Amino acid sequence: MEIRSFDTYDEKIYYLHPELSPDTPIYKYMDFDFFLDMVKRKKFYVSIKREFEDRNEKRLPIKQVMPFRAVGGHLFKDKTFVEDEVNVYMDRSHDFDEIKEWPVSCWTLRSDENYLMWKSYTSKIGVRIQTTIDKFVDSITPNDYTIYCGKMTYCGYNPSQTIKELAFTKSHHFSNEEELRFYFEPQKNSCRKELSDSIFIELPMLLNVNCGNVIDEVILSPFIKDGAADMICDFLNRTEDLAKCSIKKSNIRI
Fold first, then answer.
1. Contact 89, 62 (CB under 8 A)
2. Which of the chain's ends, N or C, has fewer CB atoms near its CB within 10 Å?
3. What angle (nearest 5°) sits at the alpha carbon of residue 126, between those of residues 121 and 131?
4. 103 and 205 in contact (C-beta within 8 Å)?
5. What's the pLDDT score for residue 159?
6. Which of 131, 127, 116 minimizes the C-alpha distance to 37?
7. Partners of 28 in the beta sheet?
């Protein structure tokens, strides 16, 4: 998934994979407090790639992406040390170390509610929001990032993949997520330096967003009791920034 396989879209520096269209519906499960930050404070929570639990998000999966293995503390291929391949690995590792510091936002293309995603990505009080790719990108201010948007592939890792292909790759065990991912590459040197030191930055990291026309639908978690869900729906329906939004309770009954 090289940069050239993306299409530049609109005024932002924004690369959209050709298999997707700007009006593709996307969905995100999130806790209610992050949702309120988005609506009331116009702040959208994003993770840093290295903060994910999957260890392959934190470091280059050497066993899968390089054709040599460690034996007795030395690197061999067919019992012969290959210095050039080690140098290739070091270069790729350096590039990966940069990408793992990028902010990232994970969504799903699954239009149906999913019980396991409710359990995995929200606490008891959570929501699922729906928007489109272009609405989400348009909402982000300022334009300090180059944005890469693409579907995750679940083919596993191999030596022929580029760094950006690795960034959009996961193990087949995650395939039921049907994940769509946005990466935010800092454009400015000052912003890049800040991210390189982001281990010292207090998380969560928040992007400024204009929420007025972003959210098309909000579904409340099935784990919220009916009485509380009715009160939350009433509160959200009276929220000005959600005036154009459909708000409803989950179709899943627990």
1. yes
2. C
3. 80
4. yes
5. 64
6. 127
7. 129
The answer, as to whether pTM is greater than 0.85, is no
Q: Which residues contact 158 (CB under 8 A, 6 or more apart)?
A: 64, 65
**Phi, psi (deg, nearest 5) at residue 2:** -70, 160
- Residue whose tokens read 């098309």: 216
What is the Cα–Cα distance from 211 to 29, expressed in whole angstroms?
17
- The Cα 236–Cα 218 span in angstroms is 9
| Contact by Cβ (8 Å): 68, 82 | yes
Contact 167, 104 (CB under 8 A): no
DSSP secondary-structure letter at 168?
A: T
Task: Return the number of other C-beta atoms located less than 10 Å from residue 128's C-beta.
Answer: 23
What residues contact residue 127 under an 8 Å CB cut-off, 6+ apart?
29, 30, 32, 35, 218, 219, 220, 221
Cα separation, 91 vs 83, whole angstroms: 13
Cα maximum dimension of the chain: 70
In 3D, which of 45, 43, 46, 36 has the Cα closest to residue 242?
36
pLDDT digits (tens, 9 = 90+) for 41-77: 898 988 888 888 777 777 766 665 565 555 555 555 5
Q: 107 with 179: CB under 8 angstroms?
A: yes
Question: Which of helix, strand or coil describes residue 182?
Answer: strand
DSSP labels for 226-252?
A: HHHHHHHHHHHHT-GGGTT-EEEE-S-
Render pLDDT for 131-179 as a digit per residue (tens, 0 to 9): 999 999 988 876 778 899 999 988 777 666 777 777 888 877 888 889 9
Strand-pairing partners, residue 230, are none
